[in-house]
Design goal:
single chain, about 230 residues, mainly alpha, two-stranded parallel sheet
Length: about 230
């Protein structure tokens, strides 16, 4: 789950760090569940804790309603709309932010996020077993520390899957950047169309309405070619 949080911060915040040690230092509030629960209950009273990932698999709304005592209520779960970027993509984004002299800004960050989810980002696809942890021991130590004193620790099982530390070289960083810039040039009109419609990066291209897809986009593409922006 902490790697999911790393990916989320890579695409949606100005946080810039490329190791789990730095990230955990920045996000310590998220990695000591016993202490956080104690603080919450001291301030607000007894809490009910649910396993978020399990609730998502079975139906988050239904699971929440049952957890607070409403029993079985027929609910229509919304379709998941948020696809995560790969760990490689997150690391590329983090290092891009680290190298930038000024914050990327929302538009540039969203463009890069959209690229990470596109078919053009093959270099950013994860390999089996890759992880941001440098070793099993580092991962296990975090797991033990995060759940120390947490009375619901049995909701989670310590990970046992084999992992391979993700290695991402300066050459790969440069190649990904070059591919991104080429992708922007090739898809400039489509990207601007999405931006005009204020579509978030994780929103599918299928959300583009037919009028935009078959009328506005071709016009923008022709205008782009005529102006020499490609």
């Amino acid at each position: 789950m902490i790697e999911s949080l790393y990916r989320e911060n890579a695409v949606s915040t100005d946080l810039a760090c490329d190791t789990m040690v730095e990230f955990l230092a920045a996000k310590v509030i998220h990695s000591s569940y016993g202490a956080r629960l104690d603080e919450f209950e001291t301030a607000l009273g007894p809490a009910t804790v649910i396993h978020f990932e399990a609730a998502v698999r079975s139906g988050l709304l239904l699971g929440f309603m049952q957890a607070i005592g409403f029993g079985h209520i027929p609910l229509q779960e919304p379709e998941p709309t948020r696809e995560s970027v790969s760990l490689r993509a997150a690391l590329w984004l983090m290092r891009t932010k680290m190298a930038a002299k000024t914050p990327l800004g929302k538009r540039e960050l969203w463009r890069r996020w959209y690229f990470c989810l596109s078919s053009g980002a093959e270099i950013l696809q994860d390999r089996d077993g890759e992880s941001l942890w440098v070793s099993d021991q580092q991962r296990d130590a975090f797991f033990d520390r995060a759940l120390h004193g947490f009375r619901y620790a049995s909701l989670w099982e310590k990970p046992t899957s084999a992992m391979q530390p993700l290695e991402w070289s300066a050459e790969q960083q440069g190649s990904a950047e070059a591919q991104y810039l080429a992708w922007v040039r090739s898809n400039a009109a489509w990207i601007r169309l999405r931006e005009k419609r204020k579509l978030a990066p994780y929103v599918s291209d299928a959300a583009i309405q037919p009028g935009d897809r078959y009328l506005r986009y071709p016009f923008m593409k022709i205008a782009e070619i005529c102006s020499g922006r490609r």
